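HOLO CASE FILE
Compound: iron/sulfur cluster
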Amino acid sequence: MENNANSGCKRCLLYEMAGKDDVIAQVEKTRKLLSEDERATDEEYKKRLATCKDCDKLIDATCLKCGCYVEIRALSKGARCPAKKW
Ligand code: SF4
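Model generated. Tokens follow.
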């Protein structure tokens, strides 16, 4: 996906932002720590992140409702959106 780091867009995910490599690495580390049974499917993960991208609570990859980086929160199959959007 296109890097929007210089677009001034606040509604971006980590992988779209410059200077967040350490957090992006944490996303991958968390993904590897989860077993296949614990992990959301790739399809569900993408669907969740697409919903977050359209949500007015997403600012700088962080959900203002729960304070989480959504790319980490959405990894777990059992995780839920605090606004019940996913
Ligand atoms: S409220 Fe839900 S959809 Fe919105 S950013 Fe947070 S987790 Fe994503």
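CASE NOTES: The radius of gyration is 12 Å. Strands lie at 58-59, 62-63.
CLOSED: yes
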